[in-house]
Amino acid sequence: MTQLGFYIDQARCIGCEACVIACKDKNDNPVGVNFRRVYSFEEGSFTEDKNGSFIQNIQSYFLSISCNHCDEPKCVENCPTTAMFKREEDGVVVVDQDKCVGCRYCEWNCPYGAPQYNEELGKMTKCDLCIDLLEKGERPACEGACPVRAIEIGPIDELRAKYGNVSEVKGLPTASITKPNLVINTHKDASE
Ligand code: SF4
Ligand code: SF4
Fold it and tell me: According to its UniProt entry, what is the function of this protein (predicted)?
């Protein structure tokens, strides 16, 4: 099996959310359902020195994330109906809509908040890595929309060979929980 995954260049991401919009449009998702999300982190403050000048130590960065198609997906382990499963051919984690009963156990067990409940359908939905586009030789929506080329999708072995193996940054859960297929080029302010 060739496991697919994501490379996210967090150092390059400008937080424009073009990836979020492209994903939403491609999947025709309703308000509140976001397979891809961009989180904004800000910390630090301004302090006044003895001369009345303000000094800042503000740190600010973004993180674009969806499902990481994990090696040990807690969503799959905790689905009572086997609706959530990992494809043998490429390791992509998908939901069988015919089997999903909308119990949301997968959502509660995913440390990344990836499964997205669709109220209209009464079912869980999620990122499927745009496998329909990949099968046609096209690129996934988020990757194609990013104006600064901060997202790359491909075989995770190749992504790790090119970019390293960092898969957790400040603000993300430890990678030991699910072993995500994710490589991040960490923003300088997001190092642990
Ligand atoms: S990120 Fe969450 S939903 Fe995606 S495979 Fe991992 S545990 Fe499952
Ligand atoms: S909501 Fe659907 S996919 Fe998620 S655990 Fe329940 S049955 Fe499985």
Answer: Electron transfer subunit of the terminal reductase during anaerobic growth on various sulfoxide and N-oxide compounds.
